[in-house]
Every structure is written in structure tokens, then in C-alpha cells.
Write a structure and sequence with these properties.
Length: 58
Amino acid sequence: MYDKEITPKDIEKILKLYAISKELVGADKLDGRLQEFTVELMKTLSDTGFLMVFNWHE
């Protein structure tokens, strides 16, 4: 399991991404900005501890 403490700085990163996501509402799936955003979102969620790796087999 991942037990990283989520800091105010981590929350700030997530809120910045939330603001960017509003700009991408209705964007085409093939829009490069949407793809870049998705990669950045997943990386940030993982790095900050908001997204945890879960071993379903255990």
C-alpha cells in the first residue's frame, strides 16, 4: 500500500490541474492538449498519493 501523507503543496497541484481541466471541457479525444493533460493528471495523482496502487489479487 501507499502511505504518503498528502501535503498542502500536493493539494495545490491537484487544484491547478482542476483549473486546466475546465479549459478542456468538450475537447476532441484526439486533441493533443487533452492527451498531455491526461498523462500529467495521472502522474500527479500518483506522485501526490491521491492515486494508490491496489493489488487486486491480494
